Each structure stands twice: as structure tokens, then as C-alpha cells.
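Problem: given the chain below (165 residues), write out its structure.
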Amino acid sequence: MSADQSYDPNVVIKAADAKLAANDVQGGQTLFQMSLFNWVDDAQFGDGSRNIDQLREAIATLWISYAHYLQKAKQFKSSNEAYEDATKCPLSGNVGRIWLDYARFFEDRGKVRSAQQVYLRALVGDKHDNGNKEAGGKVKDEQDRTLLWSEFLKMMQTKQPEKQK
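Solution.
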């Protein structure tokens, strides 16, 4: 991507949506995957002249848009995998809106227990943390944490988790 495009997620989203409209789901997936790979790589190993916070937000937008793209293509398992990959992204995995969108994905599909687990991973970590640096949750920004706690509590007050099978 050339420097004058300044990592605009809307360019990728528009091109991918055009692929989807032409029934080229794989082509759109490839656009998202290549852009994500290149942008994260540029942010981590670039010359340092870029605004990392701005790039982090653009990458977060791209991850969320990629998951939405897969949902539009009725590829829900792949969408779930995209969200999981987004939460593990070294650059934007701690962005609260990724976690919120991921939890809402499960809520919208009636999977309240899965949504609950996403919120808790974001906010307090999980049993696999075992004292690593992610203990205390992935999301560190206080505004993001406040929003996630609020949405988590609202969900728990209004929806019942599905029964374990």
C-alpha cells in the first residue's frame, strides 16, 4: 500500500464488498487478510515514522469489518475465527471495541455464555493466563474497561446463559 493511502480501512472494505457483490467471497477474504498482515507488519517493523495509535485503530476497524464481512457471507465459524485472531493481534488485540463487537456477535446468535466468556477474557483474563502479563484482562484502557463492564452487566441482567450440553 502506498503511503498516500495512509492505511484507510474504508478502501479495503469497499474493495472487499465489491468482491462479495460479485460472489467472490474468497477474493474479499484475501484482501482483508493481506491488508491486515501488511499493516500489522508495517506497524511492528516499519521505520517508526507512522502514528502507531492511528494505525492501531485502523487495524482494529479492519478486523471488525473483516468479521462483519464474513457474517454477510454467512460464514459464521470463519467470523468467529476472525474475532479470535483479532483478540490475539499484537497491535490491536487490546482495543476494547474489538472485544465488545466479539461479545455482541455471540449475543446476537443467542450464545450468552460465549459472550460472557469474551467479556471476562477482556476484563479479567482467563484460567490460561497463569500469571502472565495478560492477567487482569487484555483491555487496559480505563474508558474501554468501563464500557465493557457496563455492557457485560447489562447483558447479565437481561439475558440468561444457554444451558451446558
